[in-house]
Design goal:
single chain, mainly beta, Neuraminidase, 5-stranded mixed β-sheet, disordered N terminus
């Protein structure tokens, strides 16, 4: 099957773990550096790092492209000498929490915590890229895979990092192991072969499968804490771009069956380039060489077909003039140098008549000592060689007035079928630049046409035709007549304008023509003249003067010699007279016809009207004299008078100039009188609490009040003013002494600043003794007659007593106790109640009380008190104990036991479906993952107690593989199989390899612990040779996870 045009060919390179050693570096919690070999599960001490500020713990390490080793501790970046262990401080990155560190191929050291930071080892500058989303926080390491940055994060997750916009970073996948990944490192074999490993807090090593998104425990551990992993070449995984595109914008896709990365060229002759001018090469690794090979199956003209290219300063050439060309890196050549070199490569076909058809040129780019390659194909389509001719016809003759159509054959085109579309190419071009398959001409000359495939090199066909001009004879004559006459040519009588041509056949093949033009001149339409003149003027037509009104007709000769009739309608205007009567004020004038008139009288003025005739104006003029008015006015204070738009409000004499109804001056003289206001004042006093009626209102507050009563016309307003004084009431206090609770008499004492005092008993002294229970009132009067009074009640009652009841809380720690006041005897209401010094409800019911001591205090209106202390007891404790936390192996059953401090009514475990008996004090569980079990119990009083126990499931695989077996048929160790604990459900896959990597045994779905199953030591039905073999197994655990196990076994014979 032929290569597909424009397809990109990849060389997929496999890898073997034995191609290079899988050894990484790690740092422990004492800042010591170790190497760890995954194949042997052995670690080796390298050096202890010194000089870290404040003895901070190193959280991560990395190698950079400069070959140096770097470490991060408490946000401080260091370079480290792995021989001496001495560190050099490079600076503070910007955050104390940066547990992650890695490097890329451009010398950028990336650090991460809550956000992303970087440091460039060449510019020595730090950069903050931005914070991650709130739910993404680093746990300990970063790694590149094929230009993409990944990070180990909290919540058992691997996160994809957006370096340009860290806030857009997202979870790539989550894993289910009971461990956080602290370190990640990627072994770089090439860009298509990357292997990543991770480490947990306890040092367990995991294979991180990014394709299946699994974390696989490989069963290896250095036996110490691991805080960061690094490999010397992991930075190379950040730059894996390696691509070649022979036509960057795919413009040649429209010339053939094209796809991305290839190139198509249609030509009719050579040499031609094999790539487009926008060829694109992207290469992270250094390019070693590019080979171009002409596909031998397409070569139809043998050695006459070949490739050539000029050499460039950094790019050499091998194979010029042959079917295979190699462009190689002389030293220091980059991607652009190779782009220039490819643009200089040409395909040649030196055959006199090249065979048409497709030529395919495979272009392959090599890098990393030819361990990595990319391919693309250039296709050269050779059409049938030209020149291909076509004919526009024989040279010909064109007579005047004729046209001629020239045409190019309609089957000239070039088609490309792309999917369901058919694309047609080709341009028709005529000598004037116009396009199209047809051309129409109307003049003699040399004409040419061509058909071209502009997209194809050298593909143009053309033809030329000469068109000569033929001679002709033309004669003309003209006859002119007036309208109404007639003209006869031969037997044809004409009465309107006509051109009559007769054609005769000439001897040279073109027509000869004689034309006669007959013209009939029009007779003019009558001319109508309607005009008006002043008396004494006239109108002249054809030498005749007309001065009298009337209608006249005259016949004249027109400009063309034909008759012309003029019809005149004439009117004669007489002079007019206008009578005008006007009136003006004294001192004003009237102007008519440029004359001014200022005195009363009759006048006559001669003028000219709009028709230019005489006009007489007769004026009758009257001159009006000015007038005077006298006014006398009386108003109240605050009012005003308005005269002629002016306002007057004060007494006085005023003169106002106005205009009367004829528009002349009018003077008004005003004499104004203003009447002053009337004010009446009232002074009075009252005691506090009394009121005074004033103008319909009751006033209790002292002060000055004003009210104005409007007067009746022509009277003016009257104002009333009230000055009110309010006397305060006399001071009075009433006190009682003596305690009736103790049987003492009560003495009442009144204290006042008033002159007179009177008790309700009739006594007038300051103090009295209350002889019995009842209400007592005292009244006092001061010098202003103001009165105050006060009252007090006296009660000689019995001793105050109270009855209480209470109950203690039911459950330990609960607040469901209560105290109640059942009854109160004696004393004087109202009563106040305090419980532990806090005012309480008068109802006497106090609920929701915890255990403790409470003092109840009751006081009556006389101050008599009653007090008692109540103790609410705490009930005995009620607890349930689920036992200590424990750890089991995956597949083991655990016994759960609950003990209680009191008899219970009910007990249950949760989750109920995870235990064998949810309502039993003792039960069993078979967890497949670490689980917290909770137990609940209720006693006879309805009290609830609970506890929980954590069962940690150790997910490490418990598997045993014999290190030797002897298939000799004695029934002992005759097969190699795996023996596993209860946590292993099945062996999904078991394979055995010889020392050269060849597979000698493979089995799927194998039950463990079966001595009869497994490898019997044979290969291809024959006994395998004795020796050491490598085995690899994939185990399915009872929790659904799969793990990989590997090891060695010795076959003995």
């Amino acid at each position: 099957m032929k290569l597909i045009i424009f397809s990109l060919f990849f060389v997929l390179l496999g890898f073997s773990s034995r191609l290079r050693s899988q050894v990484f570096y790690f740092v422990d919690d004492s800042n010591s550096i170790y190497t760890f070999d995954i194949e042997t599960c052995e670690s080796s001490f390298v050096v202890n790092i010194q000089g870290i500020s404040g003895n901070s713990k190193i959280s991560d390490i990395t190698f950079a492209p400069d070959g140096n080793f770097y470490a991060i501790a408490a946000g401080n970046l260091y370079s480290v000498n792995l021989l001496s262990g001495q560190s050099a401080w490079l600076g503070f990155a910007g955050s104390n929490f940066l547990p992650s560190l890695t490097s890329d191929s451009e010398g950028n050291l990336y650090m991460a915590g809550y956000g992303l930071y970087s440091y460039n080892i060449y510019s020595q500058n730090f950069l903050f890229h931005g914070n991650f989303p709130m739910d993404i926080v680093s746990t300990g390491d970063l790694t590149f895979r094929k230009d993409t940055l990944f990070m180990a994060a909290y919540l058992n997750s691997i996160v994809w990092i957006d370096i340009e916009n860290p806030d857009s970073s997202s979870f790539y996948f989550n894993y289910s192991i009971n461990d956080d990944i602290y370190g990640i490192s990627t072994f770089f074999i090439n860009c298509d072969s990357l292997v990543s490993f991770g480490s947990g807090f306890n040092g367990d090593i995991y294979l991180i499968d990014f394709s299946s998104q699994e974390i696989i425990d490989i069963g290896c551990s250095p036996g110490t804490a691991v805080f960061g992993l690094a490999t010397p070449d992991e930075w190379q995984a950040s730059d894996c771009t390696f691509r070649i595109d022979l036509d960057g914008d795919d413009s040649s896709d429209y010339l053939g069956q094209a796809s991305t990365d290839g190139y198509w060229r249609t030509v009719c002759s050579t040499p031609v380039p094999v790539v487009d001018t926008d060829v694109v090469i992207e290469a992270g690794p250094q390019i070693d060489s590019i080979t171009l090979r002409l596909d031998g199956a397409d070569v139809l003209n043998g050695i006459l077909e070949y490739l050539s290219a000029p050499a460039l300063p950094n790019v050499g050439v091998v194979g010029n003039g042959t079917g295979q060309l190699t462009l190689y890196n002389v030293g220091g050549a980059d991607a652009q140098d190779f782009e220039w070199a490819l643009q200089g490569v040409s395909y040649h076909n030196d055959a006199p008549l090249p065979d048409p058809g497709l030529r395919h040129i495979e272009v392959t780019m090599w890098a990393q000592a030819e361990a990595l390659s990319r391919s693309a194909v250039a296709a050269i389509e050779l059409l049938y060689p030209g020149p291909l001719t076509f004919s526009l016809g024989n040279d010909t003759l064109l007579c005047p007035g004729q046209t001629l159509q020239l045409s190019i054959p309609y089957d000239y085109y070039h088609q490309v079928i792309k999917g369901t579309d058919t694309l047609t190419f080709g341009t028709y071009t005529w000598q004037d630049g116009s396009t199209g398959q047809d051309f129409v001409l109307d003049a003699a000359g040399v004409y040419s046409a061509s058909f071209s495939y502009e997209q194809a090199f050298g593909c143009t066909w053309s033809d030329t035709i000469e068109v000569a001009a033929g001679d002709t004879v033309l004669t003309q004559s003209q006859s002119i007549l007036c309208e109404g006459q007639s003209y006869t040519i031969g037997n044809v009588q004409l009465s309107s304008d006509t051109i009559l041509c007769i054609t005769y056949q000439a001897v040279n093949g073109c027509d000869s023509t004689h034309c006669t033009q007959v013209v009939f001149l029009p007779v003019s339409d009558p001319t109508l003249i309607d005009t008006t003149i002043c008396q004494g003027n006239y109108v002249q037509i054809g030498g005749v003067q007309y001065s009298q009104p009337g209608n006249y007709t005259d016949t004249l000769q027109g400009w063309n010699g034909c008759d012309s009739v003029v019809m005149l309608s004439l009117q004669v205007l007489e002079a007019d007279t206008t009578v005008v009567g006007l009136s003006v004020c004294e001192g004003e004038t009237v102007e008519i016809g440029g004359q001014s008139f200022g005195q009363s009288g009759n006048y006559e003025v001669m003028l000219t009207n709009q028709q230019g005739c005489d006009s007489v104006v007769q004026l009758s003029l009257v001159v009006t004299q000015p007038d005077t008015t006298w006014l006398a006015q009386t108003i109240c204070d605050g009012d005003s008078v308005e005269v002629g738009g002016q306002t007057f409000s004060t007494s006085g004499s005023y003169s106002i100039l106005l205009t009367n109804q004829w528009g002349c001056d009018s003077t008004v003289f005003l004499q104004l009188s203003v009447i002053p206001p009337v004010v009446i004042e009232i002074d009075t006093a009252v005691c506090e609490g009394d009121a005074v009626a004033f103008m319909g209102q009751l006033i209790e507050v002292g002060g000055t009040y004003t009210h104005t009563l409007p007067g009746q016309p022509p009277g003016c307003d009257t104002t009333y003013v009230l000055n009110l004084t309010v006397w305060p009431l006399p001071q009075l206090t009433l006190e009682s002494t003596g305690n009736s609770c103790l049987g003492e008499q009560i003495t009442l004492t009144a204290t006042t600043d008033a002159m007179d005092l009177l008790w309700s008993t009739g006594e007038i002294t300051g103090s009295i003794v209350a002889p019995q229970s009842g209400q007592y009132t005292v009244t006092v009067t001061d010098a202003h007659g103001c009165i105050a009074s006060a009252s007090v009640g006296v009660d000689y009652t019995g001793q105050l007593t109270v009855e209480l009841s209470w109950a203690s809380p039911v459950c330990p720690g609960a607040a469901d106790g209560f105290i109640a006041i059942d009854s109160i005897a004696g004393g004087l209401a109202p009563y106040t109640i305090f419980v532990n010094g806090i005012a309480a409800s008068v109802s006497g019911q106090y609920h929701d009380l915890p255990a403790g001591s409470y003092e109840v205090l009751l006081t009556d209106a006389q101050g008599c008190q009653w007090v008692q202390t109540v103790v609410l007891a705490e009930p005995p404790p009620f607890v349930v104990d689920a036992g200590p936390d424990r750890t089991i192996r995956l597949g083991e059953e655990v016994l759960l036991e609950a003990s209680v401090s009191q008899p219970v009514d009910s007990l249950w475990w949760w989750p109920a479906d995870a235990v064998s008996c949810a309502g039993c004090p003792e039960t069993t569980a078979l967890p497949t993952a670490s689980t917290t079990y909770q137990v609940y119990a209720i006693n006879a009083m309805g009290c609830l107690a609970s506890d929980e126990v954590r069962v940690v499931v150790d997910g490490r695989t418990a598997v045993y593989a014999p290190n030797a077996f002897s298939p000799n048929g004695d029934g002992i160790n005759d097969t190699f199989t795996l023996y596993a604990g209860k946590g292993v459900a099945s062996v999904e896959y078991l394979a055995v390899f010889d020392r050269w990597g060849g597979m000698v045994y493979e089995e799927e779905t194998l039950l463990p612990n079966d001595p009869a199953a497994g490898w019997d030591g044979s290969w291809r039905d024959r006994p395998a040779a004795a020796g050491v073999y490598v085995w690899l197994a994939r185990l399915r655990l009872i929790n659904g996870r799969t793990v990989l196990e590997k090891g060695e076994v010795t076959l003995m014979r």
